[in-house]
Amino acid sequence: MDTIHVMTRPERQVGQVQLITIVGISLVLMFALGLFAEFRVRASLIHWNDPVATYTTLRPALGLFSAGIFAFVVITFLDVVLSVAFCTLFVTLHRFVALLMTSLRLLYAAFQGVALVGLILARDLYAAAPTETVDLQVAHTAMQFLKLQHMGFALGLIFFGLHLILLGWLLRNVPEMPRVVVWVLFAAGIGYGLNSLALLFTPEATVVQTVIIVLFIIPMTFAELSLGGWLWVKRKRMATLLPG
């Protein structure tokens, strides 16, 4: 007859330490991949208001562009991993909020994954285009695919922003969690939401978007990195603070 093994508190803490380690490493890795994909690839190769300039810049750099796509794929996978890990770690703090937070991040990952199709289609168009001259039809069609990814990603970031706000709300109930980390998560969530709404519904209001970026760029950039770093350093202590 099989027996059911009930985990003891020390055994649960070991599992929590392992999960927290995965979360910390994943967040730091996502930060590095995000910097590469956004700034080294998209920001340097894509000129949003100039399809021809994008063609001439991106067409000779398809290898770099493909590396950026791969980075986004890894980030999307890690988002799914983090969704499960966060839910497992924090469900005892508040079950409903933890499940809602997880659902929002999974929605964000789904939007991000589907939007990547735009980058792949644009890459394939550029790959089949001539290198000696600029094919205007390819340039304009590929730009539409790039904007498809851009807008899909922005829509997903609304759900991501809500996820960060709920994550901050959960973490404020964890003893010894630095208040600055919690407030940075709140600020980042608000920033992502406002920036995405401005991009989607007031695309010509560049001043509004610039103001939002200036106000929220620091929390938007470092929110999850600061959380990941703190969790990594305090992983053993954190496991003793979580109820379960």
From TrEMBL:
<keyword id="KW-0812">Transmembrane</keyword>
<feature type="transmembrane region" description="Helical">
    <location>
        <begin position="61"/>
        <end position="94"/>
    </location>
</feature>
<feature type="transmembrane region" description="Helical">
    <location>
        <begin position="148"/>
        <end position="171"/>
    </location>
</feature>
<feature type="transmembrane region" description="Helical">
    <location>
        <begin position="180"/>
        <end position="201"/>
    </location>
</feature>
<feature type="transmembrane region" description="Helical">
    <location>
        <begin position="207"/>
        <end position="233"/>
    </location>
</feature>
<keyword id="KW-1133">Transmembrane helix</keyword>
<dbReference type="Pfam" id="PF14329">
    <property type="entry name" value="DUF4386"/>
</dbReference>
<dbReference type="InterPro" id="IPR025495">
    <property type="entry name" value="DUF4386"/>
</dbReference>
<feature type="transmembrane region" description="Helical">
    <location>
        <begin position="106"/>
        <end position="128"/>
    </location>
</feature>
<keyword id="KW-0472">Membrane</keyword>
<protein>
    <recommendedName>
        <fullName>DUF4386 domain-containing protein</fullName>
    </recommendedName>
</protein>
<feature type="transmembrane region" description="Helical">
    <location>
        <begin position="20"/>
        <end position="41"/>
    </location>
</feature>
